[in-house]
Every structure is written in structure tokens, then in C-alpha cells.
Amino acid sequence: MEWENVDAVLLDLDGVLTPTAEVHMRAWATLFTGVLEDLPEGDGDDVDTSPYTDEDYFEHVDGRPRYEGVAAFLGSRGIELPHGTPDDAPDAATVCGLGNRKNVLFNELLDAEGIEPYPGSVALLDHLQDRGTAVAVVTSSRNGPHVLDTSGLAERFEVVVDGTVAAEQGLAGKPEPDTYRYAAERLGTDPSRCAVVEDAVSGVQSGAAGSFGVVVGVDRGVGADALRSAGADVVVTDLAELLPREQQDAWRDRIPARP
């Protein structure tokens, strides 16, 4: 990375700073497996009840706001439910109800197991702090503050744009660039001087659509080719790869091999 051209770094949270993407995946899998199993027999010839897979997560859910992820998956299986409202109970048979149920499952897992940030991500944050580079978290999740508190990262970020902030400000979610542009505005930095760091295809697309200085894709499982096709300028498997070369020696054996 040519950090001389970057004044601010805008980072996704789940899968970039913390391994909570895996926790989200488990919560989604529990939710949608139950939804498919509970469908009544003969619910329609166009309804696909084949088992939920990680491919469903990466194609329909990863990086999207929660209710949009629910709607996208249900639509892919031909399942029709009323949208409902964000106030729906977690057991409501609506898009919002299912989204709220997933949130309950996620927080139960997070509270039970806790979460530690990726060491390489912490190393990069330390480097950016040393050079005076501004940082912000931009996440579609409404659980951003909870994850930051649990992982011990909360004090590192004065600007956090999460799903709640996006709703309050009327910002379109990823893959639109609005949330990242809002973070840049909050930091007082021109987008052309910002780096966007994302592990989801929809997040990389949002960075590419916003005319940011550089878009970094972090391959935590979606695939380097998919991230490049979505608009990533650089693809890494660990944020330690973005450290200055002389600092990478200490991390070389800890960075996963890139496919």
C-alpha cells in the first residue's frame, strides 16, 4: 500500500476487523435451516427447499443490511412472506421478524463465546495510528457497537457508521456507496483520499461505486477473483499484508497463504 496517498481508512467490521462474520454465518444458517424445515409440504412447485449452504450466504446475505439479506434469500428460494416492520417480534413470520430472530441468535452466540479481533488487523490499526491516519468503521450490522465493545476495539474509532446510523440518516445500504461516503464526510476527508477495506462482494462494490482512492478486498472465504471482479484494487488474506514491508517479516508465518 502507498499510504502517502491515503488520509483515512474506512473499514468494514465483520470479517475485516473481527471474525464475527463466522458468527453471523452460523446465526444465518440456524435461521434459514429452520425456515426451510418449517415450510409446509406442498408449499408450491416454485419453492426451493434444498438445504441452506455457505454459497447462499455469500450470494444473498454477506454484507447486506439484515432485512435485505432475508428478502434476498427468500426471493432466491421462491418463498413469499410479508415484509412487516422492524418492530416485529422475532417469532413473526415476516421478513423483519426473521431478521430480528437472526439478531437474537447472533447476540446469543456473541455473548456466550465472546470475540477477539484479528491480530493482523490490530497491527494495521496500530500502524495507522502511529502515522496519524484517520479510521472509521462502516458496517451494515446494527450490532456494530456491541461487537466493538466485546472485541475491545471501541476506543479506537470515533466514527462508526452502522445499520442504525444508516437508518437514521436515510442512507442506502451496501452495495451503494452512501454509508462509506457518509463516514468520509464525518472524518472531513475527500473520498479520493480514502481507502475502503471490505471482505464482502457487496461491500467492495460499494467502495468501487464511490470513487474512493483505493478499495482493498480481504479474502476470508468469498474468493480473490470474486473480490477483484467486484472492483477491488488490492486483495489480501490478512490486513498485516498492508503493513510496510519491513514490518511484515514478523507476520509472514502468521498470514494465510493466498489461493
Describe this structure in words.
This protein has 2 domains: 3-19 and 116-254, Rossmann fold (3-Layer(aba) Sandwich), CATH 3.40.50; 22-113, no CATH class. It is globular. 44% of the residues lie in helices and 10% in strands. The mean pLDDT is 92. It contains 11 helices and 6 strands. It has a 6-stranded parallel beta sheet with strand order 3-2-1-4-5-6, sandwiched between helices. Helix 9 (201-209) links the parallel strand 4 and strand 5. With 259 residues, it is α/β, with parallel strands linked by helices.
Jot down its keywords:
6 strands; 11 helices; Rossmann fold; magnesium; six-stranded parallel β-sheet; 2 domains; carbohydrate metabolism; Haloacid dehalogenase
Fill in the CATH topology of the largest domain: Rossmann fold
Low-confidence stretches: none
**Can you tell me the CATH class of the largest domain?**
Alpha Beta
Taken in chain order, the helices and strands follow as EHHHHHEHEHHEHEHEH
Work out the helicity level: 40-55%
Subunit organisation of the chains: single chain
Kindly report the spatial arrangement of strands forming the biggest sheet: 3-2-1-4-5-6
What name goes with the CATH superfamily of the largest domain?
Answer: HAD superfamily/HAD-like
Pfam families: Hydrolase
Organism: Ornithinimicrobium pekingense
Family: Belongs to the HAD-like hydrolase superfamily. CbbY/CbbZ/Gph/YieH family.
Keywords: Carbohydrate metabolism, Magnesium, Metal-binding
